[in-house]
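Trying the structure run again after the queue cleared.
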Amino acid sequence: MTAQIGDSRLAQRLQRETEGEVLFTPADRGRYATDASIYQVEPIGVLVPKTAADVEAAMAICREEGVPVLPRGGGTSQCGQTVNRALVLDCTKHLRRVLNVEGETARVEPGITLGALNEALKPRGMFFPVDPSTWARCTIGGMAGNNSCGSKSIRYGLMADNVRAIDAILADGSRHVFGEGLPNTDLVARLHALGEREAAEIAERFPEQLRRVGGYNLDALTPAARAAGRGNLARLLVGSEGTLAFSAALDLKLWPIKPRKVVGICQFPTFRRAMEASKHLVTLDPEAVELVDRTMIELGRSIPIYRPIIERMLIGEPDSLLIVEFHGHEDGPLLAALDRLEEMMGDLGLPDMVVRATDAAFQAEVAEVREAGLNIMMSMKGDAKPVSFIEDAAVSLEDLPDYTERLTAVFDKHGVKGTWYAHASVGCLHVRPVLNMKDGGDVRRMREIAEECFALVREYKGSHSGEHGDGIVRSEFHESMFGPRIVRAFEAVKDEFDPNGLLNPGRVVRPPRMDDRTLFRYGPDYAALPVTPALDWSAWPGPQRGLLGAVEMCNNNGTCRKFDANVMCPSYRVTREEQHLTRGRANTLRLALTGQVPGGLGGEAAVEAMSLCVSCKGCKRECPTGVDMARMKIEVLAARNAREGVPLKDKLIATLPRWAGMASAVPFMANLRDTIPGLAKLSEKLLGLSAERSLPRFRRDAFRDGEARAGSGTKEVLLFADTFNRHFEPENLRAAVRVLAASGYSVKPAQGEGSRPLCCGRTYLAAGMVEEARAEARRTLAALSTSDAPVLGLEPSCLMTLRDEFTALLPGAESEALSKRAFLATEFLEKESTLPALKPVAAAAHIHGHCHQKAFGAFPAAVKALRRVPGMEVKPIASSCCGMAGAFGYEAKNIEASKAMAELSLLPAVRAAPAGDIIVADGTSCRHQIQDLSGREALHSIRVLERGL
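Done. Tokens:
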């Protein structure tokens, strides 16, 4: 811990006087210096509190030391409210319990995510309805800080309408419960006096918009609010962005779940037609009406995971979509609502322009695209990105068409394009002009656009902050929005709660300028170090041959923090630490590549951040901006090797394909490590390979390329025999030969000149030995380019190397062509629909997908192929990484993390499977992990298909 906390007095006191985790290294501070906004402010340090008592102790220490405090949830804020020169309190690791549920009220800790809360409430038939698109990773404390809204605010209101009470720790250390019907205190009396004094000004200056989250909710203090039952002082804390108090616990208003849903996707030829239709569609009493514009449609199409969903959502080539949701308890009324929607579209001159989504799977896919909207917009490559600063201004629905048209004219005047998305039902559209925040001219343009936009909002009596809060980017504009008297009242409230400015200073009141570039992620001095990457990154523009541009694709949106994601991020799932998150790693690399943390690309900070990355490639597919951390890890290890050399253990594993043949010739000798007592312990001491693990056993009957000659079909396929199946499980390759031949193919071996088998280079890449991997790729590419036959493999990590890393090792037409004809065997057979009629196999098969299978969209094909076996019930296991991940799980330093990854979902599912059921896993590592930790044998899917021949 000493290495982490450094030698500052504050850090030492926190270490002594709290039980929390104290993080003060430059890399730790750098990882908490950003949120999803354009800003970067390095904190003084970070505390991850274990209890509310830790928070109270830390606040007392900071009060004595004169250090500000910043409570932080998921760090996904758009406006800069979760970055500050302060001690950050990260509540997400430990303060995430549901403390009590009674009737229609739940008491929760601030670090619980909305997704986790609703999962816990589901058995009770209840849910918490405020649903921002970040629901799977945003925290309740952060939502309260922002006064979050979400797509269903038209029905359920804002966070302020759904928080019954807040158990708050104030800056002076006192603890108060703010809620309904509670006794008055001197503080409450003073606040009510302020509300009474300013009631007329509040009524005059506060816009009459549902989506008004700017400033403090002073209206809760007025006599009129108290008389109308809206004087709950929890409303005042909601939306205060951590500037008034720390929320130790929150009482939330719960609602009964409506179990049924239908969705209509309305198509519009122009953006204005969509805006004009909004006021009519809301009369149908929908749960939500969400906009998707042309830019988002096209960007979504460019992302493989979203392309098929987008295509299914469209009729022709619309310019804009409005996604209309109806929720209820019975199908009949909901289907009638869809009928009325279609009738209304016809009345609006757009007949037959509704895509009906009535099945749950399609609805979930549509919701996924809609929720990823902001991040899909950020998938633009290059320095110019859609920038959040006027994003969520809200106006009345009647004014929406004119407002959006006039705002587009502002963009045209300044020569920029804008992207539009979100909540058409309440007049709150997420609009982001595309600007380059590294360019001083565009920064000036940003301010000019902001001033003109907010002037328009005031003209339409709208709200300049309709969902994402104030932070740095909007607090400055409160005076022009509300007038000086209201802003002085905001300041008076702040001073009542926090007279010494301990809590998140400079946010909401007394803010810096929004265009102060010293606060930017890309400040005036931002510059790339002279780095030459080992791989090709030319798909991304910018310095370091595109590497920095690829790293900068991470916009800190935090999708990698989701626990419902398909794969990513397995290391974060078991540690819940920012360092071991795709976002945390990307921030570490960006700081390293620009000299903001010591050591550069191959330095200790970067290497440590990658230490638990299992190269699952989940981020490549699931990150909305396509951050490929597995490829970036190769760069880090290559840079480390250049500085320090290749560790012996890494070199031994990397060269496995070269010596595996000799080991198979003398398997008794090769397998001695796990047969002679003491050798496993010695291998742990010398090489770091855990003595708890058995190693894969070399086989004397290793697969020979000559065996891959079978079948008399007219279409040829090349079988790529990987090192692992070749030497450890040759029966899988033999099964593949049988199945492919029975499917009508002429099977040939994928082989080159000489006796040494072809190799994908994966083991070299995993060790950062890029030149050795490039040599293997060159040899393999030369051999496989002599034919245009499909290349089929069994091991996902090896086969997908041909499809992915070869294009980064040897960019060009040959590697691109190979990537398009390299398939996993089951993926190919399902794509071609060539499996023969199979005999029944009366068993259930529980199938776990290898991470690379999922990352490249090949897992569904394996499931479908198995479902062609008559009588077999195929059950996909909802799992992330198995935790073995090549050599990762064999290393003593990783053993606990490896086991924890497996225990998240895979092993419980395997143990729950009846003894007679089949366990299926296509990854060598996955099969070994399952065998090692559960005692169950797992089969490759090709062997299950062989049973049906």
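Residues 1-5 have pLDDT under 50 and may be disordered. Worth checking whether this holds up in the mutant runs.
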